[in-house]
Amino acid sequence: MAKTRGAPPRRGAESSSQPVERVRPTASARQRRLRREVQEIQEDVVSDVDEEEVPADDEAQQGDPVDVQAEVYGGGPEDTSVLRTYHRHVALRLWNGEDRGTLKLVSHGRKLMAPVEAYIKDIVVNSGLAPLIDCSHSLVDRGLLSAFAERWHRDTCSFHLPVGEMTITLDDVSSPLHLPVTGRLFSLRTIGKDEANMMLVSLLRVSHVVAFAKTEITRGAYVKLGWLRDLYAHSVQQGNLDVATRAYLLHLVGCTIFADKSATLVRVSYLELFRDLHMVGTFAWGASALAFLYENLKDASFHNTRQIAGYLTLLQAWIYEHFPHIVIRQPNSEYEEGETLSKRWAPLRGTGDVVVVRQALDRLTYADVIWMPYEAHRVHRPFHDVSWYRGHITCGSIVFPHLPERVLRQYGHIHSIPPSPHDTLPVSGISDIHYQFLHYEDHLLEDVYRGPRMTIQGECVDDYLRWYHRISHPYLIPSDDKVANPVPRRVPRVDTVGSTSDGVGHVISYQGLFQGISERLQALFDRGLVTHGTETGGLTQEALDMANLGVEGHRTGKPSYRHVYRRRGDRSTQ
Questions:
Q1: How far out from the chain centre does Cα 225 lie?
Q2: Is the pTM of this model over 0.85?
Q3: Are 352 and 142 contacting, i.e. CB atoms less than 8 angstroms apart?
Q4: Edge-to-edge, what's the strand order for the sheet holding 152-153?
Q5: pLDDT digits over 369-406, tens only?
Q6: Strand 104-105 to strand 307-308: parallel, antiparallel, or no bridges (unpaired)?
Q7: DSSP letters of 28-86?
């Protein structure tokens, strides 16, 4: 009989009355190898490669998936053809009762400084990096971000939630942060201490003695962020504005989009991007920031990882906009219309409980998600076609796919079953990827695969949820009373008072319709799109009151909105 992983003990099994010496089972060769692979993944420093070299993925990604017949996972997936690396995922350990706790976060929001010299300020603005100065959060929520990291899967580059897959797209970088998502992707060569010293001497104009001392302290091709701040101030005083600008930009990206797990260092190799200060604005900084965050989310999804880096403001801002009902946030009184959306909310001091957020995500419903939160902001930051780009994005040697077909609802389209992420987007050479992204117009997801527009929020095709529950693990906490969220559908016409059926197992009544209207109207106030004391706010409040009266008026009698999909998508009556 195949060994069952994560299954409960057999009921009715008799235990011997005599004490039996416990023998620790011997791990198989394959299990030992998997543990070694997990340990290797946790290395904090990611080495760069030559321009034409693409890093080889682990064998679980490139090779055959884990044998479905040999591995049975409690909580899913039943079919591992999509999540090929699930056997190494933190979700498997969580389901089996092994909680790693809250991750340590790397955030430098308090260290950022604004340039005051006009020359430096103009270059920073033209580079496209200026929004990072004001939009970065000074506080990040450890519990909140840790709980979302548990849902990330590197196989699909998406979060796996009870409502389906969601991810951070190029639009999620452009709209809330105003970072450039078109332009050149960059390559970084592998450099050692000697070459790093030469680069410091050439571009930051320090002596060989100083350069050697700085890399000797960091024991590699890195410098300390604190030293860059001091060098910036000294260079401004001396009138060396080009040096001051390079020091400032290196410090800026090291504190934000390229923040790594060292928490105090930044790679000297990034200086190459600032060699020609007039070309800094030609890079797609937002796309590279997204690839760098994908890399850090990948690391954080493995059980042995205890720390996460990357631009965590991007992750937290994305959560704030899409999940207003499960986060604690407050409006920023200093926010002005047209500024970056990440400034709209002021993070609160303190840390959320990862267990509480984990439970909230397990209870997530379609009404808890804002699928398209940027519509009111489009007048200031229009939707860019590059958001439909289907291909790879890079940050130096880091390569990840950008797959809009896996999250069509975030684009306002009815979600369908996506193709396998392993078979449909082969990895090309780094130069080819850069060329494809530069000419993104030829690599957009075709209209035929986008499907029709949604008519209700969260809408997807009939079979999507059953398929998704088979290839994923929508829940992280074992429970017998969990059922799958209903697939959103077009609301049927109701000709009589009472309840009706949409013909596929969902029972819908007026109370459910009123409740949905109430939640959406309340979301307008919660997200700050409508404010009290205005004419629009008054009309919205009247409609909200009417919807709440409708809910109260139908509260008695049979359940008003009842879905009958059990876990795994099985249909049955309740």
A1: 26
A2: no
A3: yes
A4: 152-153, 158-161, 164-166
A5: 999 999 999 999 999 999 999 999 999 999 999 999 99
A6: parallel
A7: PHHHHHHHHHHHHHT-SPPPP--TT--PPPPHHHHSPPP-TTT--BTT--S-TTS-TTG
